[in-house]
Each structure stands twice: as C-alpha cells, then as structure tokens.
Design goal:
With 152 residues, the protein is mostly beta strands. It is 7% helix and 36% strand. A 5-stranded antiparallel beta sheet has the order 6-5-4-7-8, with no helix packed on it. The structure holds zinc ion.
Length: 152
Amino acid sequence: MSEKKFFRVPSLVTMPCAWSVGPFLDRFYAELGQKKIVGTRCPKCRTVFVPPRSVCGACWKPLTKWVELKDQGELVNYTVAHVDMRGAALQTPRILGMVKLKGGGAKVTAIYGEIKGVAPDRVKVGMKLAAVWADEPKGELTDLSYFQPVSK
Ligand SMILES: [Zn+2]
C-alpha cells in the first residue's frame, strides 16, 4: 500500500470569541485580580481543586468550600518548549510547568504556569517556586504572570 501525499498549508486559525466562564472561574479570576489564588475543597476526599471546580469528579460531591492557597509551591512536572504554536523555533526555550501550591493540604491539584528565572537544563521537579504577579492585575489569568524559583 502506498502512502498518499497531501498538499499541506501550515497555518494557525485565530477566532476571537467570548463566553461566560461560570460562577466558579468568575470568582477565581476576580481573586487573581486581588493577587489571591483560590480553589474549592471536596467535603469527602478533601482534594482541593485549583482552579476551582463545582463538583469533585471522583466523589460526585458539590464543592462549596472555598480555600485560599499560598502563591508559592512546588514544581510537580514540566516541559520545555523549543517551538511556538506555529512550529517556529523559539530563540529562548520556554518552560511550562504544573505547580502544586501550598495551603491546600495534602491533596491539591497543580496549577499550570510558565517558569522563568531558571535555565531549562537546571529546572527540576520538586523545586520551590513563587508566583510573580502582574503589576496591575485585572482579574484575568495573566495576572499570575509566571513562577520563579524561591530565592534562599
Ligand atoms: Zn472528592
């Protein structure tokens, strides 16, 4: 069987859109605007979800207890991006990671963020990180600009 070749035109489609994020993410973004990170805790399994969810997917319990987390935590996994969304090489690789924040107890989900202030070959799972906030938060996801290593 021969492999069929297709003519390809690489492109990235952008489509402006807006939608309601619902009451849980609405509060999450509003709290980011105050430089606070909040989640919701499951009354049964005690997992804290960040960003907040309305229902625990494991227990099917509604989540009504809000928890404020620290803006510091630990890197639980990461990847290093060498290309942008269009596939073009980045001059400086970007580190994207999942950070488990303090203040949520033993069971807390990790939040996504860019990691700066450390070289890609020096980043390590378990390293302590702190959030760097936008100078003028607006209640948007970008208020949490990125995470950087905690200086000792
Ligand atoms: Zn649960």
